[in-house]
Amino acid sequence: MASDPASVVAHTSRGNKLASYWLKLPMKIYSFLADVVVFVHAAYVCFVIFGLGAILLGCAFRWRWIRSFWFRVVHLGTIGIVVVESLFGITCPLTTLEHSLRLAAGETARGESFIGRWVHDLLFFDAPPWVFTVVYCVFGAVVLATFVIAPPMRRPTEQIE
After folding, report:
1. What is the pTM of this model?
2. Would you say residue 150 has pLDDT above 80?
3. Are 129 and 50 in contact (CB under 8 A)?
4. Which domain holds residue 111?
5. 138, 83 Cβ separation under 8 angstroms
C-alpha cells in the first residue's frame, strides 16, 4: 500500500474528488501568493508615483508633512532602487517572484484570477527596455530635484535641561 497522502486519500469512498482537491490546494496557494506579490508590487509603484504627486502638490500648497525627512528618504530610495535595476538590466525581484509563483501554480505569467490579471495589466506595458530606463531615470531625477525645491527637514531634537 502506498504511503503518500494522495494515494491514501484516493482509496477512500470519496477519494477521487478529495484527492484532486488536496492536490490542487498547493497550486491555489501559489496563485494566491502570486496575487499578493502583484498587489505589493502595485503598492510600491503607487507609493513612488503618488508620493511624487503629493510632494509636488505639497510644494504648491505649502504642506509641511511633505518635508518629512523619513518619508522623503524612503521615497527617494524606492525610485532609486528602480533606477539602478533598470540601468544595470536587473529584473525586478517582485516580477521574478510573481512569475515563479504563477508557474508553480500552473498559470501563465499574466495570472488567471480576475484581480491578479487586472493589477498585472496596470503594472506591465509592452515597450522596449530602454523606454523604461529613460522613464525611470527622468522620474528619479525629478524626485531628486524635489530635494532642492523643497528639501526635507528633520525635526529639531528636544534638548534636555
Report:
1. 0.75
2. yes
3. no
4. 28-149
5. no
